[in-house]
Specification:
With 645 residues, the protein is α/β, with parallel strands linked by helices. It has helices at 48-55, 78-88, 104-114, 119-132, 148-160, 178-193, 205-208, 252-268, 270-304, 334-341, 377-381, 393-397, 407-414, 453-461, 479-494, 504-547, 549-557, 562-597, 608-634, 638-643; strands at 6-17, 20-32, 37-41, 63-68, 71-72, 89-92, 166-170, 197-202, 213-218, 221-227, 312-317, 346-361, 364-373, 385-388, 402-405, 423-426, 429-437, 448-452, 468-473, 499-503. 47% of the residues lie in helices and 21% in strands. The chain binds adenosine-5'-diphosphate and magnesium ion.
């Protein structure tokens, strides 16, 4: 702590009051040496507080120069002024200006936050100061649990937190009973005896009598300046209790204390916080569940599509799936499939007919999809064999009763036994198992068995038209153009277009496009909920800034820079958003779980992407909607803010 020399010359401070201009200070020339104990006395309205605000760098003069330790304050920006306040001055106000939400200790620690002290340093220093001022047992008391005299002593401890080389006390005893007033005055004299400069502003001559120098002011002009010889001269000294200082940057412990303070104030105003958060909770819950719903729908519709690979086209009889003449059309034949197999863009091709038939092994019997296919079916559809050799060309040519089982068919009929070589009954046809397909994703729960197409026709169903032809297109060939080529070929062969081509790839694409569009729309709706929530946060933050204007002024007086205030309020907005966001996220998981448990047709699939999106949204909402209130807070003028009721 170094008490700086304070040098004012020709200081004028003007207030415009409608048409007329009032000079609150009108040409003040004054030098206060380090270590002085000065009383400034004058009637109410004489300009004492204005002078003190200028001395403490809370306010700037309109004319004249003011030097603190040789530094001209006119040259400083708001941050520079904040620095001077932090390093040199300690304020004591008539009405204490303690932050009601904070304990005595936390109030004293406040300036330490802006000086970059660590939490431990702040805590131990505040405890030391409070102990010294006789408040050792009131560290955790709130201001409303303390008497006026005790509160003023807390305020003095706060003034000493960062060193307090110059103590500026504006009517420090004005609100106190005479005994508490005596204690406070004795304390200020003691601090002066340590070498600190103490400036006491008072309208009370009895108080002024304690000083070594009394400056009388009236109508913004110094009337007299008299020194009372000191009993023992105290030389200004460097005392050892200067607070240690970290390099001044945004300190993590500052962020931490802003965050914990906002959590505490949320807890203190539960109803209000809950109402504020509701918008965020609803917004985040709907964004997350809506994005999850989109994901779930995508996954579900993919699972519903056939297992055939994306590069297969299927040719069906008729105009479309609901063609009434379907049964009468017999033009689609195995010969078509052989013709297609010769096309350069075709990788492989297979006829396919499906019927439903009872299959039975020993005592187990079940309905199955019985496929009649060419041996190339498995390659065409991208199936692989788990065991056995599968269907061969001679199974087709000789219509042999050999059958391949789907994994579900194998486990349904054979449990864990080996089906290979066993005979199963398909309707009245006895067929030998020659293969079991390998499991694959999305393969569903259908019991399917595969005969050669000829075996199906000749041994099971008798003459019936071919169901469809599955064509696998070569890699790198566009399914759309292959579809056109097949269309031409078959139309020519049939003489008319009595078939249609199901292009699963195209359908999947357009389905995904639709789901994507749907997603964008409902996400936009959910985002609106989030924005409404953000506006709610902004509203409550604006109210909070108004309610806490004096606290903001006080924080500035003890050295907070604009960005410190800004950060404080943005962190508070973020804290509300994050708590709300976390509850919203939990709500979304609960909705998803509930929908699953109740078997509702809401396939909500919450993935990391949805969670990440929600977190980013929460962060952005906090930043965007916290910005305006925080900026309002940061732009407050400290003098006006402190004077606010
Ligand atoms: P004191 O502290 O001695 O009572 P002040 O310094 O508060 O006096 O005020 C000095 C003069 O400046 C008074 O006439 C007061 O009305 C005027 N004044 C102070 N602050 C403002 C302000 N913000 N706007 C207009 N006039 C002001
Ligand atoms: Mg005043």
């Amino acid at each position: 702590m170094t008490a700086a020399r304070l040098d004012l010359s020709g200081i004028r401070r003007l207030y415009r009051n409608g048409e007329e201009t009032i000079a609150a200070l009108d040409g003040i020339d004054l030098t206060i040496e380090p270590g002085e104990l000065v009383a400034i006395v004058g009637a109410s309205g004489s300009g004492k507080s204005t002078l003190m605000n200028i001395l403490g760098c809370l306010d700037k003069p309109d004319h004249g120069t003011y030097r603190v330790g040789g530094q001209d304050v006119a040259a400083l920006d708001p941050n520079g002024l904040a620095y001077l306040r932090r390093e040199h001055f300690g304020f004591v106000f008539q009405r204490y200006h303690l932050v009601a939400a904070l304990t005595a200790s936390a109030n004293v620690e406040l300036p330490g936050i802006y000086a970059g002290l660590s939490t431990d340093q702040r805590r131990s220093r505040a405890a030391g100061l409070l102990r010294r001022l006789g408040l050792a047992d009131r560290l955790q008391s709130r201001p409303n649990q303390l008497s006026g005299g005790q509160q003023q002593r807390v305020a003095i401890a706060r003034a000493l937190m960062n060193g307090g080389g110059v103590i500026l006390a504006d009517e420090p005893t004005g609100a106190l009973d005479s005994r508490s007033g005596e204690t406070v005055l004795a304390l200020l004299k003691e601090l002066n005896a340590e070498g600190r400069t103490v400036v006491i502003i008072t309208h009370d001559r009895a108080v002024a009598a304690h000083a070594h120098r009394v400056i009388e002011i009236a109508d913004g002009v110094i009337q007299s300046d008299s020194r009372i010889p000191k009993e023992a001269s105290v030389s200004p000294c460097q005392t050892d209790n200067t607070a240690p200082r970290l390099p001044r940057s945004v300190s993590l412990s500052g962020v931490g204390s802003a965050f914990s303070m906002s959590l505490r104030s949320m807890a203190a105003q539960k109803m209000r916080s809950a109402l504020t958060m509701i918008g965020i909770v609803i917004g985040i819950a709907s964004v997350v569940s809506v994005v999850g719903l989109g994901e779930g729908m995508k996954a579900e519709s993919l699972a519903q599509m056939s297992d055939l690979g994306s590069s297969t086209l299927t040719v069906y009889r008729g105009k479309d799936f609901s063609d009434p003449n379907y049964d009468k059309i017999t033009s689609l034949t195995v010969a078509d499939s052989l013709a297609l197999a010769r096309q350069p863009y075709v990788e492989s091709v297979t006829p396919e007919t499906v019927i439903t038939q009872k299959v039975r092994y020993a005592s187990i019997s079940t309905d199955a999809q019985v496929y009649g296919v060419a041996p190339s079916y498995f390659h065409t559809g991208g199936y692989s064999l788990e065991k056995g050799i599968g269907l061969m060309d001679r199974d087709m040519n000789e219509a042999r009763a050999n059958v391949v089982l789907s994994p579900v068919a194998a486990t349904t009929l054979f449990k864990k036994a080996d089906p290979l070589g066993k005979s199963i009954m398909i309707g009245n046809l006895k067929a030998t198992v020659v293969g079991v397909l390998a499991e694959r994703a999305n393969s569903g729960r259908v019991v399917a068995v595969y005969l050669s197409y000829n075996a199906l026709r000749e041994r099971l169903t008798g003459a019936m038209p071919l169901g469809s032809i599955v064509v696998r297109i070569r890699d790198h060939i566009d399914t759309k153009s292959a579809e056109r080529a097949i269309m031409h070929l078959l139309t020519r062969r049939h003489g008319l277009k009595d078939f249609f081509i199901y292009n699963q790839d195209e359908i999947r694409k357009s389905m995904m496009r639709m789901i994507g569009l749907f997603n964008v729309l409902i996400t936009a709706l959910a985002a609106i909920a989030l924005v409404v929530g953000g506006v709610g946060v902004m509203n409550i933050m604006l109210i909070s800034v108004t309610e806490r204007t004096r606290e903001i002024g006080l924080r500035m007086a003890v050295g907070a820079r604009r960005q410190d205030i800004m950060m404080q309020f943005i962190i508070e907005a973020l804290a509300v958003c994050f708590v709300g966001g976390a509850i919203g996220m939990a709500t979304a998981f609960a909705i998803a779980g509930l929908a699953g448990a109740l078997g509702l047709p809401l396939p909500i699939l919450i993935n990391g992407q949805a969670v990440a999106l929600a977190s980013v949204a929460t962060l952005l909402i906090g930043l965007i909607f916290g910005y305006l209130p925080a900026r309002n807070a940061a732009r407050l003028d400290p003098v006006e803010a402190l004077a606010r009721e």
